[in-house]
Amino acid sequence: MNSPTLSQGNSLASRDVKSLIHSYTNLSAHEKEGPLIIETGKGIYVYDDNGKEYIEGLAGLWCTSFGFGEQELIDAAIRQMHKLPYYHSFASKSTEPGILLAEKLLEIAPGNLSKVFFANSGSEANDTVVKLVWYYNNSRGLPKKKKIISRQKAYHGVTVAAASMTGLPPLHNDFDLPIQNILHTSCPHYYRFGKDGESEEDFATRMATELEELILREGPDTVAAFIAEPVMGAGGVIVPPKGYFQKIQAVLKKYDVLMVADEVICGFGRTGNMWGSETLGIQPDILSCAKALSSAYLPIAAVLVSEDIFRGMVKQSEKHGAFAHGYTYSGHPVPAAVALRTLELMEERNMVEHVQAIAPLFEKRFQALADHPLVGEVRVCGLVGAVELVADKATRQSFDPSLGLAANAVKAMQDAGLIARAVAGDNVALCPPLIITEDQINDMFDKFEQGLNAVLPL
Ligand code: PMP
Asked: Which of 111, 200, 385, 395 could join 380 in a cystine, given CB atoms 3.0 to 4.6 angstroms apart?
């Protein structure tokens, strides 16, 4: 579609261009090209307003673990809507779905997490993490211990503190971020940042040493927490080298720095265990989660904290008369009921075992792409993975960013009937609904390859 049609017409696409601001979209290109309007969804497929079918290869935004149209989740929402369509959790108010969901989360949580706070999105959960860390260290009489260390290429969301912890320049540039007290250490991407002759293990050791050097430079009495996605998602699906988190956590322990696991993508089966923390060997003091918590059918997120942190919060709230944080929709009963049903379905349908059973084919099809002329590296963990496109496989040289190669490949995949996502430069990611079958995995990779072949330089 061209711009005169879009600016003059009365189609849904024209009305979109005239009325909507789109996230993570080139706003000027969008005015000319318009939207892809998705009308319906079923299983791993979505359909546009012309009836064209697409495999949703990214589960929306890494989130619709049960695919589209899962009747059990729809029914859970309707039942709760009839019973009690809204209530809140301020001033000691509570609802059954919120209580049951908190219990269920604690039952499946890794390590010794003991209390749950609800939010509505990953960003809100991570902003809450920052505030809880500060509140907790105030309760301990450590008012200087406030800095939070994240990593370059991390993604923790877009609200002011969460975007600050995100380590991707486009989320900072011209938004006047990061805020103070948020720092970034090195990204554990061996292919890009490993030195000549350095083994993966030595690289992991260096990552921990660089973290320690940062803590010492800043002063351990000023550093409160370290936050990490077990596998970095939007930064390019970066799987850290073996032993990385063990080495990092040894440094954190030494300097009394809390470990925060951002499980917003990795939680709920994605990496082949219930939590990415289990797959990557993390023992979190705080955990944030969202997305697949409700299979994304309704917005809900959670922050889980250790008993020690909760006791600090209790102490501090006594001082102030109340714990003065919370959202109108914290623990909203309808999303909570859908999330509870999602977690029950994960057990009833053995979803983690299903992921373990099909992940080898997903990995095999991904690894086969290593021979493709455009692919420099393949990275995969459970049912999430990406290829990094390079201009020269031997030197690992990237393409000129102005070519937008990954974005063009993703467009070609879309033409072929697959929705994939270009992330953080020339990486193309797949993170399909967990319910995907082996035949569908094969079909998805055939379309993925078709897209890559379409942008091969002549
Ligand atoms: N953390 C991680 C690891 C994420 O991937 C995301 C979203 N992609 C967020 C936080 C932010 O979540 P939301 O978009 O729900 O605010």
From this structure: 385
CA distance 57 to 64: 10
The answer to whether residues 151 and 247 belong to one domain is yes
| 233 in contact with ligand 1, CB cutoff 6 A | yes
Q: Is 416 inside a domain boundary?
A: yes
Write out the residue range of the structural domain in which residue 172 sits. Answer: 72-348
Looking at residue 8, its pLDDT comes to 82
236 lines ligand 1 (CB under 6 A): no
Average pLDDT value for residue range 310-320: 95
Considering the domain architecture, whether residues 277 and 380 belong to the same structural domain is answered as no
Give the pLDDT confidence of 111-123 residue by residue, as tens digits: 999 999 999 999 9
Q: Is residue 30 part of a domain?
A: no
One domain, residues 288 and 361: no
Q: Whose CA is nearest to atom 13 of ligand 1?
A: 122
Instruction: Write down which residue in 348, 372, 404 finishes a domain.
Output: 348
Which atom in ligand 1 lies closest to the alpha carbon of residue 232? 3
Could you tell me if 53 and 101 lie in one domain? no
Is the domain of 324 the same as that of 360?
no
Query: What pLDDT score does 2 carry?
Result: 46
Instruction: For residues 271 and 379, state if they share a domain.
Output: no
pLDDT grade, residue 4 (50/70/90)?
A: low
Are 91 and 142 within one domain?
Answer: yes
Q: What is the mean pLDDT of residues 398-420?
A: 96
Q: Are residues 46 and 154 in the same domain?
A: no
pLDDT per residue over 341-354, tens digit each?
999 999 999 999 99
pLDDT at 6: 84
